[in-house]
Every structure is written in C-alpha cells, then in structure tokens.
Amino acid sequence: MPSALITGITGQDGLYLAELLLAKGYDVHGLIRGQNNPKRQLVEKLLPEVRLHNGDLTDLSSLLRALRDAAPDEVYNLGAVSFVAYSWENAHLTTDVTAKGVLNMLEAVRLHCGYREGSDQVGGVRFYQASSSEMFGKVQESPQHERTLLWPRSPYGVSKVFGHHMTINYRESYGLHASSGILFNHESPRRGPEFVTRKISQAVARIHLGLQDQLVLGNLDAERDWGFAGDYVEAMWLMLQQPAGDDYVVATGETHSIRDFLDEAFGQVGVTDWTPYVRQDPRFVRPAEVDHLVGDASKAREVLGWKPRVTFRELVAMMVEADLEATRQGW
Ligand code: NAP
Ligand code: G4F
C-alpha cells in the first residue's frame, strides 16, 4: 500500500486530496499544527482513516518526526498562509510559513532520506509543492504558462516564488523527484469564507433566505481563472506518478471577473440585477492587485492527461447550492 503525507490536511485541497488518495488505496497521513487545532475534529469525522501527526512547517524537527512516523512514499506540501490580503499585514509570518516552510519540508525530506554528498539521488520520496498563479502577479503575457516570467505582487506571491524555485533547486541539486504545480484559483463548497468566491456564495444564500441585505467587496474588475478543487487535486497526484519531477500549470484556460461571478451566483437565486445588494469598500482593495490571470495548461493536458471536468457555471451553482443547504440547516 503506497503512503502519503499531506501538509495542510485541514485546508480545502488537503481534504479533497486525502479523499482521492484514500480512494486509490493509500495509507494517508496528515500534518496538523497547534495544540488544539479546531479543525482536527472535522478531519477525524470526515476522514477517520487518516493518521494525524502534530507538526508545523516552521519547526524542522516536527517535520522530521512526522516523516519518520509516517514513512511516506509521497509528500504533498499544501500547508501555507494562503490568504493573499492577509499576507501584507503578516509578511513575516507569511514568509516563515509559505516561503521558509517549503525549505524546511524539502530539507526534512533530504535528511530523512539520508542523502549523502557524492550520491546523485536523494532517495525514494516524491515531493509535491503547491505553487500558485499568484507568482505571475503583474502578468507579462497571456495566457500564462510554465516559462512565463514571474512578477509577484504580494508577500504571499513572493513567498510562493521562493518555494517554487527552492523546489526546482532541490530537484536539480539532489535529484529529488520534486514537482511544482502552478495551480490557478480553484474553489469548492469547502473554500474558506475569506476568499471572494465563497464570500459571494455564502452572501447570496443568506440574502436569498432574508438573513443579510448587503455584500461588501473590494475590486470587482479583477479576473481569475477559476476551476473546481476536486479536479485540481487529481493533477497533483498525476505529477507524482511521472518518471521524473517537473513543473506544470493547472488551469481551465477561461477567465472571469468578480462581476461575472456575481452575475452567475445571484442568477442561481433568480436575481438579475445584484447592484442593490453589493457595495464596494476600499477596506477590501489590496495595496497591489493581480488584475488578470488565465492559464495555459497544455503541458498538463499532454503529459499528465489532465483536464478540468467542472465548468465555471457548474462550479458557481455547486457553491451556491451548498451554501443554501448549509444556511437552511443552520450549519
Ligand atoms: P487553505 O484552505 O487556506 O489551507 C491551508 C492549510 O495550511 C491549512 O490546512 C492550514 O492549517 C495549513 N497551515 C497554515 N499554516 C501552517 C503551518 N505553520 N504549518 C503547517 N500547516 C499550516 O488553502 P488551500 O486552498 O487548500 O490551498 C492549498 C495550498 O495550495 C496552499 O499552499 C495554497 O497557497 C496553494 N494554492 C491554492 C490555490 C487555490 O486557489 N486554492 C491556488 C494555488 C495555490 P490550519 O487549519 O491549522 O490553519
Ligand atoms: O478570492 P481571493 O482572495 O483569491 P486570490 O487573491 O486570487 O488568491 C487565491 O488564489 C491564488 C491562486 O491564484 C492562491 F494562490 C491563493 O492562495 C488564494 O487561494 O481574491 C480574488 C480576487 C482578488 O483580485 C481580490 O482583490 O477577488 C478580489 N476581491 C474583491 N473583493 C476580493 C474581495 N477578494 C476577497 N478575498 N474579498 C473581497 O471582498
């Protein structure tokens, strides 16, 4: 039975990936941080087969301990401070976790595998790094692909660039089977409520049910290439099944503005003009914006045989329906 260790198991992608790997017969381990993480119960209830290990990406010895106890064939490094807006206010923390945390995990894998100077292979463990389309930032060409110049626009984006290049460096320096998935925005009913898509789907459900009358947002003109998280974790797994590590863009190839998302989401509850419900507030406008993202995933399609299944319209409908149900049930 193959085994995998997932950091960020409590997050959106961690949960979908754990489900996918369990369905494939993996022995799944997850790294969980904090002395009383409120999401522990969620993971234990949803995925009782997953074995949790205490640890933090900022603490190298805890990563070594988790690797020793889990003895994984594959490591998926999904843990991060992942909210871009938060990263300006917490730039040091973001750097410690989202940038240096990647180095800690890579170094832990290298030490765990007993790498010795002079040997050309770090060992059997395969490594996945959760890189991001935020690295493209002030985009230099469209659509963005694996060789597009990186121009990050936030402490989060800068940290992801560090992790991305460190992953490539460990592949080139130590022969580590390390892959970097440059994933464009992916969403689901499990998306954190701080991200714009979930903020909208929750608000639409509450407005429809008479529990809220206003939705306050920032920049409505930004464009994102939004896909479904359940499709994207499959690409992560496919990367680690290849003969060698590499970098892949994972995206739908379609872009939509926040206004488009509002149109679709309010449309789900029969509202054609959402302007009376939506207010803009500079509080939610970022110091530097990523205006336009759209990915070219031809390499993932050709090499991995991956393609997205869920369309933009289906994704929005799925999220609004789930929030309507959750709000009705009082979850
Ligand atoms: P998420 O829901 O925000 O999950 C982040 C995870 O990181 C949580 O499990 C969190 O644990 C964990 N974490 C935070 N600080 C940590 C630390 N110090 N040590 C260990 N774990 C820590 O993010 P996601 O949407 O699933 O994304 C997964 C990864 O993909 C992230 O690295 C993100 O930056 C990247 N990514 C996401 C997207 C996207 O559109 N979703 C696109 C590109 C890349 P707690 O529960 O303890 O906070
Ligand atoms: O939903 P967002 O916060 O996602 P963002 O910044 O694109 O980052 C997400 O995707 C990245 C991949 O490209 C990941 F790496 C990252 O971890 C995260 O998962 O914001 C999307 C857009 C932005 O342009 C933002 O300015 O929505 C705009 N927006 C407008 N009003 C808002 C709001 N975003 C949020 N979160 N809240 C608002 O009220």
UniProtKB/TrEMBL annotation:
Which PANTHER family does this chain map to? GDP-MANNOSE 4,6 DEHYDRATASE (PTHR43715:SF1), GDP-MANNOSE 4,6-DEHYDRATASE (PTHR43715)
The reaction(s) annotated as catalysed by this protein in its Swiss-Prot or TrEMBL entry are: GDP-alpha-D-mannose = GDP-4-dehydro-alpha-D-rhamnose + H2O
Enumerate the cofactors the protein uses: NADP(+)
Q: Can you name this protein?
A: GDP-mannose 4,6-dehydratase
A Pfam family it matches? GDP_Man_Dehyd
User: What family is this?
Assistant: Belongs to the NAD(P)-dependent epimerase/dehydratase family. GDP-mannose 4,6-dehydratase subfamily.
- InterPro entries with a match to the protein in the record: GDP_Man_deHydtase, NAD(P)-bd_dom, NAD(P)-bd_dom_sf
Tell me, what does this protein do in biology? Catalyzes the conversion of GDP-D-mannose to GDP-4-dehydro-6-deoxy-D-mannose.
Q: Name one GO biological process term.
A: 'de novo' GDP-L-fucose biosynthetic process
Q: NAD(P)-binding domain spans which residues?
A: 5-319
Q: Which GO terms describe its molecular function?
A: GDP-mannose 4,6-dehydratase activity; NADP+ binding
- Keyword terms, alphabetized: Lyase, NADP
**EC primary class:** lyase
User: Which organism's genome codes for this protein?
Assistant: Nocardioides panaciterrulae
Under the heading CDD domains, the entry gives: GDP_MD_SDR_e
EC?
4.2.1.47
